[in-house]
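WARN no homologs supplied; continuing
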Amino acid sequence: MRRLMQIACAVAAWASLSLPLSAAPTEPENCPGLIASRDALVSRAALRQDEVGLTFVGHATFLIETPQGVRIATDYSDGTRPPVPPDVATMNKAHSTHFSYRPDPGIKHVLKGWNPAGGPAYHDLTVQDVRIRNVSTNIRSSGGGTEYDGNSIFVFETSQLCIAHLGHLHHTLAPEHLKKLGRIDVLLVPVDGGYTLETFDMMEVLRSINASLMIPMHFFGPSTLNRFLSSAREHFPVEFSNTAAITLSRAALPKSPKILVLPGH
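OK structure emitted
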């Protein structure tokens, strides 16, 4: 508890940084800011009904925690996963660092961002106080062509927030993608500038989604991150958190789009 109080105090000054649950899945009025530690998961008891815990585990994996205690791991892989089994794990196909051959058997819901039988994956799942859905996108094939529907942008709707994880995005978004996404409040963004999207194109994606808060992921050290940030600063203010776990709320979101860098890579 003392540790949690220290974390809250350390970031409270930064947290003066705000969303409604989506409508029916057929035509979603989709998608309904920030305190934060990498050393410990956000305590379930510490979350109010209007708060969501978000921890950067590493690479493209985040742990999302809801007020009712649902734990979700994004791009859960054999090499990067949270220290406790989540209730839900989402995965993407492009590289083995984004999916698991051996997910923990304690995970209740394993959601693949691709359809092994072909065609787009489709997920629209409600687990207690969170709705999880996906928007299918394409990836580059190993031969340099296009593998259709190999990636999903997963959207997590809880506590009046819409959090979107771009996964291993390989192309800019068309109007139909943006319509399916709806309003996004918090966007988790791969910023490597090569394995996923080139930085110029990623800037187009960020501007088109226009989320209140954008959090970089999928970078391999300071040089990769700084290359992205040098371009991002032309469009958005950039701030740094000293902890890898933050608490999000609608009321605390930035008034205009902002990038927040969490420690790790």
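Residues 2-12 form the longest helix (11 residues).
OK
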